[in-house]
Recover the amino acids of this structure.
């Protein structure tokens, strides 16, 4: 079976890796270069803490295990080292009583679903994060949260795919589908026609546009986010620390700015400060007032960072689906077309699980988690619940 | 009502733009990160150093001083010293106004205030800084950019070393050597990397254009005489290809170069020095033009670019003019002519005003001069062969050439962005201002190009506390 993966971001790379290792003939196409768009503009989250009980949490827990397996298999390889896997754990801090009540309930649900959740008292929080605010209502530690360097992580997965025989073609833009008997048999691209038996749409925020060009539109839209980067600091922040509003902001579908503090260090010593969510199409302007809001929220969690210089800001687009669930599976309207998209801000973590589920479905194996909730023919994906 | 013109940068171009915009009747806000106007060209001594003859190291001091007093004392001019643009905010599509200008005021570390300006027209005159190519040992203490050495000599009267080699390419080598001599260094030599044939061919192609820059010719003659008086040898076709020393520079390795800057084997020579000053032309400061949405044009070498402007110094971004070294490296007289045009037109002056004819002529002569400069002092591709796998290419992050090559050759790596994120080249505190063009040149043709090295949406570092506080609207 010849599989053509459309998109060389981390989700496309993870799909290519699973399919190539299963012995399929895989070609990955990308309009730009590998891992150059959404993958290169995130923080590298591998999180369970921000997911309530349900299908996304199942996918996240499976993915986290698969990340560890993939890295264990590649131990000692330099490309595995460049993943910068850091199981640092996450700490969620509620600074208001209302926030604390919401967090307590959310954490109880996660605990019941099997997530490791530890409530921190004041000395516990101060020991875990000496610089964090002492003015808090509730703090919860999630030891399973991890972080990777996302571009290194994507290169690692794509490298595995290439080693297993996959091919990569960059600078190739998909323009349309060639169909025969109602089935997609090739894509027309800026570099000629590429034939295949199966086509996997893994174009992230551009999946909606790609699907439309192929004649089977899906409701995946861009959701803008910005991150501030400080100059390198001595060790200051030891976990991924975020405020309890974050889960609400992720779950919101609002167009206007949703911001909540997400603060963490990188191996290079910089501190990353997020996060914002806006639905502004593909408008890539960096807005100073958004950066200002992010800085203000971060200082509520870490007041002592007020003198730390921000040297860079970057923004990117998350692939957003109105019901906040990834889209993984065959498109019933166009046989031969599959989708692996819609991970919003969680694609780095969920990539490997997505690749596994997609390969299982494609090869007729039973996925280890229920893939039904990710199916393509659900109202949120096929515009049936459209509010526009 | 008169137009509000904001001018970023108070070097020769910005100051001329301010004078012309005032003359056109506009209200002008002139700002610069430095304490006083002048830019790199007319760098002034701090007042505390009030020297006897401040003008001795400066060319055209009297004219500059008159222009400065006229502009700064003008009732329609607001001068904002120690003010930086940290962000330019582009308008919505279809809105023809120039971007909003986000400022921070005051010396760093003092909890600076922010403000926002909404100009009717924006003139960018942000200038250029030294372009430096990496070579083995360039990260040792004692290796200076020629501009930094000159700034120390001119601004603080400090010599960077006792025994100094000045190397690189371009006419800037000469004033730098002169500044060092004035500051008391012994200059062991001035090395122009290009062979004499290239230099002569570049400058000699159209002698009429050189004759149109009489000030330049006299200035060069002055430097040449000074070097001769101090018995400083000037050599062409030779470069510093490595610096060595234990913890700081103790010797420089020079070598003869071919026209493409590759080393002629067997011509390496060690010269004992305690400082090396290098310059390989200039890198324009392009983050603000990029943030404003201005299109760039590629420069002569891989990784170099300048702001694209039309005959009226207009960029492709509505309401945004550009003047000076960001449009092409042509020296101060051309920068002044560009500034005059940009300021006059930004201020609402008529493009048909008769006195513009002479200004345009001077500007065109300046552009011709810039072309000759580029032809006489190209950067040869052979510099890449000076590097070893252990040569640091990004000083902030200590990324080596070897690491860069490994990342570029990774079949799953692919894009320049992926290489930068993977090796951290250009991601440190200088944000690729130093290494960006060199890294882009080293990656050229090896990886997919997806980004310019000049993209810096946060144009100047800003502290979190400063960023979190809301700005004041309008001029402070």
């Amino acid at each position: 079976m010849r599989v053509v993966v459309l998109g060389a971001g981390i989700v496309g790379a993870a799909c290519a890796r699973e399919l190539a290792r299963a012995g399929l003939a895989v070609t990955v196409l990308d309009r730009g270069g590998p891992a150059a768009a959404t993958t290169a503009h995130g923080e590298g989250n591998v999180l369970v803490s921000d997911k309530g009980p349900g299908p996304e949490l199942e996918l996240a827990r499976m993915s986290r295990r698969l990340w560890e397996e993939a890295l264990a298999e590649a131990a000692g390889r330099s490309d595995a080292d460049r993943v910068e896997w850091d199981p640092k754990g996450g700490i969620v801090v509620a600074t208001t009583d209302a926030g604390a009540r919401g967090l307590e309930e959310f954490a109880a649900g996660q605990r019941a679903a099997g997530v490791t959740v530890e409530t921190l008292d004041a000395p516990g929080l101060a020991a875990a994060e000496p610089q964090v605010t002492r003015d808090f209502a509730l703090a919860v530690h999630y030891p399973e949260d991890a972080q990777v360097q996302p571009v290194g992580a994507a290169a690692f997965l794509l490298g595995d795919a290439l080693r297993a025989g996959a091919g990569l073609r960059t600078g190739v833009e998909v323009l349309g589908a060639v169909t025969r008997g109602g089935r997609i048999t090739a894509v027309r691209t800026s570099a000629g026609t590429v034939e295949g038996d199966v086509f996997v749409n893994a174009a992230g925020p551009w999946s909606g546009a790609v699907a439309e060009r192929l004649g089977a539109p899906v409701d995946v839209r861009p959701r803008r986010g910005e991150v501030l980067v400080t100059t390198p600091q001595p060790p200051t922040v030891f976990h991924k620390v975020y405020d309890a509003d974050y889960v609400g902001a992720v779950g919101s579908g609002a167009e206007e700015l949703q911001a909540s503090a997400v603060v963490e260090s990188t191996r290079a010593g910089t501190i990353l400060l997020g996060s914002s969510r806006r639905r502004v199409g593909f408008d890539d302007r960096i807005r100073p007032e958004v950066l200002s809001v992010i800085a203000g929220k971060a200082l509520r969690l870490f007041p002592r960072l007020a003198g730390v210089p921000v040297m860079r800001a970057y923004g990117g687009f998350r692939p957003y689906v109105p019901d906040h669930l990834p889209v993984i599976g065959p498109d019933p309207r166009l046989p031969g077309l599959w989708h692996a998209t819609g991970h919003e801000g969680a694609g780095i973590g969920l990539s490997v699980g997505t690749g596994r589920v997609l390969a299982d479905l494609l090869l007729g194996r039973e996925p280890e988690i229920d893939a039904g909730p990710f199916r393509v023919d659900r109202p949120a994906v096929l515009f049936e619940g459209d509010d526009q | 009502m008169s137009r509000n013109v904001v001018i970023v940068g108070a070097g020769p171009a910005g100051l001329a733009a301010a004078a012309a915009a005032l003359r056109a009747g506009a209200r002008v806000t002139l700002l610069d990160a430095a304490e006083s106007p002048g830019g790199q060209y007319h760098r002034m001594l701090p007042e505390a150093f009030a020297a006897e003859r401040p003008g001795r190291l400066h060319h055209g001091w009297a004219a500059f001083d008159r222009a400065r007093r006229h502009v700064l004392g003008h009732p329609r001019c607001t001068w904002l010293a120690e003010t930086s643009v940290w962000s330019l905010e582009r308008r919505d599509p279809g809105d023809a106004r120039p971007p909003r200008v986000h400022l921070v005021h005051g010396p760093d570390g003092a909890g600076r205030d922010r403000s926002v300006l909404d100009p009717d027209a924006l003139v960018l005159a942000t200038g250029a800084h030294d372009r430096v190519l990496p070579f083995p040992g360039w990260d040792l203490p004692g290796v200076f950019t020629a501009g930094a050495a000159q700034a120390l000599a001119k601004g603080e009267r400090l010599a960077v070393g006792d025994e100094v080699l000045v190397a690189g390419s371009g006419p800037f080598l000469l004033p730098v050597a002169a500044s060092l001599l004035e500051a008391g260094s012994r200059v062991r030599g001035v090395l122009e990397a290009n062979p004499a044939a290239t230099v002569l061919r570049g400058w000699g192609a159209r002698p009429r254009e050189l004759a149109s820059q009489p000030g330049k010719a006299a200035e060069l003659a002055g430097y040449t005489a000074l070097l001769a008086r101090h018995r400083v040898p000037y050599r062409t076709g030779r470069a510093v290809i490595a610096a060595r020393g234990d913890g700081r520079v103790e010797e420089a390795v020079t070598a003869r170069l071919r026209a493409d800057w590759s080393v002629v084997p067997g011509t390496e020579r060690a010269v004992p020095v305690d400082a090396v000053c290098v310059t390989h032309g200039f890198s324009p400061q392009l983050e603000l033009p990029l943030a404003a949405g201005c299109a760039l044009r590629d420069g002569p070498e891989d990784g170099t670019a300048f702001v694209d402007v039309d005959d009226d110094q207009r960029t492709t971004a509505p309401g945004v003019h550009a003047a000076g070294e960001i449009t092409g490296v042509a020296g101060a007289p051309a920068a002044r002519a560009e500034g005059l045009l940009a300021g006059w037109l930004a201020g609402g002056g008529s493009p048909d005003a008769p006195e513009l004819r002479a200004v345009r002529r001077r500007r065109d002569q300046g552009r011709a001069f810039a072309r000759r400069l580029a032809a006489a002092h190209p950067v040869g591709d052979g510099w890449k062969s000076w590097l070893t796998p252990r040569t640091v290419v990004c000083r902030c992050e200590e990324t080596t050439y070897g690491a860069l090559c490994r990342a570029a050759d990774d079949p799953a790596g692919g894009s320049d962005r992926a290489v930068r994120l993977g090796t951290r080249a250009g991601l440190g505190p200088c944000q690729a201002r130093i290494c960006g063009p060199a890294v882009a040149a080293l990656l050229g043709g090896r990886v997919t190009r997806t980004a310019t090295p000049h993209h810096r949406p946060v144009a100047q570092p800003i502290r979190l506390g400063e960023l979190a506080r809301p700005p004041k609207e309008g001029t402070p």
User: Anything to note?
Assistant: The two ends of chain A are 39 Å apart (CA to CA). The mean pLDDT of chain A is 94. The domain at 90-143+222-320 of chain A is CATH 3.30.9.10 (D-Amino Acid Oxidase; Chain A, domain 2).
